[in-house]
Fold these 2 entries.
Entry 1:
Amino acid sequence: MQNSANQELIACHECDALQQATRLPPGGVARCICCGGHLYSNPKGGLDTPLALSISTLILFLVANTYPLMTLNVAGQSKDTTLSGASWALYQANMPELAAVVWLASVVTPALIIFCNLYILASLRFRLRLPGVRALLVWVTRLQPWGMMDVFMLGILVSLVKLSGMAEVKLGAGLYAFVALIFFFTASAARFEPHLLWRRLKGST
Amino acid sequence: MACHVCGLLVQARPGHHPHCPRCGSALHFRKPNSLSRTWALLLTAMMMYVPAMALPVMQTSAFGSTQGDTIMSGVIYFLKGGDWPLALVIFVASVMVPILKMMALIYLLISVQRHSRLRHRQRTVLYRITELMGRWSMVDVFVIAIMAALVQMGNLAQITPGLGAVAFASVVILTMLSALSFDPRLIWDHQEQLQHHE
C-alpha cells in the first residue's frame, strides 16, 4: 500500500478493491472495477458552482423555516404550521423523544449540512484557512444520511392529500420555498465531492 | 488500509491503533464488531416492529368520538376511499421497506457468516439499495407530525400522535444504524482469501 503524488491509489469503500485513481473529465464519475460502487466524481464548475448553490440553499432554508408551510381551514377556524411547528406539535402531545427525532431530521441536520458545506467551500475557494475545516468535513460525511428534507417533502404531499379530503388547505410561502430548497439542496449535494475536497485540503497545508 | 471517513490510504502497522493523518478519524481495516453490532441493532428493530404495527400511530377525535389508527388501518382507509396510489405509497414506505430491509440485512449477515462465495456483486448492490431506501420509511412519522400540527380544532377535530409512532420511528432509526454498522467489504473478504490461496 503506497501512495505517491502522481499515481494515487484508491480503495473502494464497498469492496476494498485497490485501483488507480485517474483524472476525470468535468462531469465524469469513477466507478469501482470490482463491484461497480461509486468511487468519486469530478463535478462541473469547480468550487464556484457548489458554493453558489449552497448560498441559494441557505437563503431558501431560512425562508422555508420562517413562513408557514400550509394553512388548514375548518368551519371558520384556521391553523397553520411551519417546519418546526410539526415537531412542536409532537412535543406538546407529550412525545418529546419523537419531537426531537423529527426536528433533528427535518431542521437541525439539514441546517448543519448546509452550514458545513458553505464553510468548507468558502474556506477552500477563497483560501481563507478557516479553523476546523477538516473536523467539519468529517462531520458532514457522517451527518449525510440523517438529513431527511426530501422524505419530509413526501410527507407533506401525503398529508396534503389526506387533509384535502376533510377540509380546505391553503399552501403557504414556506412550502414553495421548501420545494425549491429540495432542488437546490440536492443539486449542491451532488456537486459536493468529499474526495476532491480532501485532496484540495491536503494540498493547501 | 483505507480511512472510513475520508478514504485516504494509509500504510498499516500492526500493534497500535492508528489515526488517519488527513482527517484524524480512528483507522480500522473493517468497521469494528460490524457483525455483532448489526445483529444487535437489527434484532432490536425487529422487536420494535411489532408494537409499531400493532399500536395506533395517531388518534383522531372528531365531534366527541375518538378513533385510533394503526399504519395498516390507514392504508385500508385509503384503499376503501379509492385513493390507491396513496395507499401504495404508505404501504411500500411503512410496511414493505422496513420488512425488506430487515430481510436483506439478515441475508447479508448470514451469507457473510457462512463465508458464501456467491453473487458478491449482487449482494453489494443489495446493501447499497438497503442503505439508500431506509430513510424513506420516516415519511409516515412526518405525516403524523404535520397532521398533528394542523388539525388542532379543539372539540371539532383533533389529531394526536400515538405510541405506535414512537415505536415506528425507532424501527426506522435502528434499521438505519444497523445498515450503517454493516461493513460491505466483509462480503468480499472470503473471495480475497481464496484468491490468495490459489
Entry 2:
Amino acid sequence: MNPLALIGHTFLEFLAATGRLGHFTSRSISHCFRRPFYWSQIGRQFVDIGYFSLPVVGLTALFTGMVLALQSYSGFSRFDAESAIPTVVVLSITRELGPVMAGLMVAGRIGAAIAAELGTMRVTEQIDALTTLSTNPQKYLIAPRLIASTLVMPLLVLIADIIGVFGGFLVCVYRLKFNAANYISQSWQYLEFRDVTSGLWKAAVFGFIIALMGCFNGFNSKGGAQGVGAATTNAVVTASILILVSNYLLTGIFFSGK
Amino acid sequence: MTETAHPDHQPKIELTGVHKSFGEKKILRGVNLSIGKSESVVVIGGSGTGKSVLLKCILGILHPESGNIKIDGKDVVGVRGRAKDKHLRKFGMLFQGSALFDSLPVWQNVAFRPLQAQGMKKKEARDLAIATLGSVGLSPAVGDLYPAELSGGMQKRVALARAIAAKPEIIFFDEPTTGLDPIMSDVINELIVKCVRELGATTLTITHDMASARKIADRIAMLHEGHIIWQGPKRDIDHSGNPYVDQFIHGRAEGPIRMQVRKV
C-alpha cells in the first residue's frame, strides 16, 4: 500500500472517530438534563461506581501516601529539610496523586465494567430491545452512568486524600519517628482550600471521562466476544490517557502563574 | 384470521422501495410489502438476506437510504422525539436471542415498558407481569428468577411475555424458534398464534423455519437478494411455481439459490 495513502487513511479515520465521539458526548450530556430521569439507575450506579470502588481506591491512596513519605524523606534528609515532608505529602496527595491515582484505578475498574456490560448488551440486542420498549437507551444506560461517575468521583477522591495523608503520617510517625502532633499541624500549615478543591474538580472531570469512554466504547461495540474485549481494552486505555492529558491541562488552568 | 389485506382498508404497515446498505454492501434493494390490519405475514429467506435489517428499518433503529415506510398511513422514516415515542409504543418485539435484560428479574423484564416508560406502580406492574407470564404458561415463581437462571425455551417464553405485555398493535417476531428443539418450537408457535389472536395484533415474523412459518402465517413472503421475490397466501406456498421458493421450502442445496461455499 502507498505509505501516503496509509497516512491519509489513518488521519481521516482519526477525524471520523473524533467526530463520532463529539456527537456521542453532546447527545449524552443533553440526555443527562432532560426528563425522564431514571433515579433507580442513577442510585445503582452510585453504589457500583462509588461504594464498591472504596477498597481499591483506599488501598491505592494508603500506599501512595506511605511511599511518598519514604521517598521524600530519602531526598529531604540530605539537606536537613525533613520538616517539609508533611507539606510535601499533603500537597502532592490533594493536588495531584489523590485524583490521578484514584482516576486510573477507577478507570480500570469501572471503565472496563461499563464497556463490557454495554458491549454485551449491544451484541445480545438488549440495547435494541430497550428501544422497542419505548425507552431511549442513551437516557436509560448512559446518562445515569455519566451522572453517577461525575458526582461520585470527587467524594471518592476526598476519601482518598484523607487516607493518603494518613498513610504518610503512619510512615513518618511510626517508622521515621516524627512527632505526631507536629506532623499534623505542619500538614495544615501550608494547605490552602483550593489545593483540595482543585483536586476535586479534577476528580469530577476524570469521573466523566471514565464513564464516557466506557459508554462510548461499549455502546458502539461490534462483533461478539472479540468486539466486547476490544471495547473494554479501548475504554481503559483511552480513559487512562485522557485522564493524564486532561490532568496536565487542568493543572495548567488551576495554577496558572503559581 | 384474514387471508389477504382488506381492500377497503389502508394497510397497517406499508413498505415501498425500501433500500438499505451498509457501506458497499447492499442489503435491501427496493422492498415492497404491505401488511393488513390483524394480518400475520411471515417473511422467509436464507441467512444474511436482510430479514432482521427489514424489521429494524420499520422500527426506526436503522434508517433506510430511500423508500417509504408507512404505519397506519403515516410515513415513519426518520421520525424523532415525541412522534418516535408514539411510533414505538405501537410495537412489541420478540428478539432472536430473547434479549432479556440480565440485570433485572424476570417480572421486571416482562413489565419493563409499563414500569419505565408508562410510569405504572410497582405493585400493579408486578400483577401484570405475573398475569402475562401465566398466559405464556409460566408460573408466578418464575417472576422472581433472573434470566440467566432459565433454559432457552423459558427465556423465549419470557421474551414473548415481554413483547405482548403492553398489548401492542404490531408485534415482530425475529426467528422465534431458532435454537429450540422441535417440541419447544411448536409450543412457542402455538403461544404466538394464541397470543396474537387474543390481542388481534398485526404481526410480521421472520424465520427460516418452514414448520413455524406454516403454523403462524396468513401470508408468506420470500426475501432474496434484497427483494421480495414471491408472496402469497400460506396455502399457495407448495405450488408457488417459483424455483427459488421451491428450493427454499424443500431445503435443497441444488437450485437457483447459490450458497457462497468455496470449492475445495
